Amino acid sequence: MTKRQVSKLIHVGDYAAEVLLDLAYTDDEWSPYLSLEDATKLDLVREALQRRDFKAAQALARIYALSPLAV
Prior knowledge:
This protein has 71 residues and is α+β, with helices and mostly antiparallel strands. It has one domain. Helix content is 30%, strand content 39%. β2 and β3 form a beta hairpin. The longest helix has 16 residues. It is elongated and about 50 Å long. The relative contact order is 0.24.
């Protein structure tokens, strides 16, 4: 089994979060695997963004405010 760190983007309203996760690769046909801890991290960041609790979200991910380029 090999592990590789990847970043996933979560988009909620006018905000996005970049979450770093470890994916486990095996010879299994269901590969790659996401650990329970990383799946929980994704859920916690998404829920924090929905509550607009940026301090909690920043503890787990890099947070971005999105704005339109043209009106």
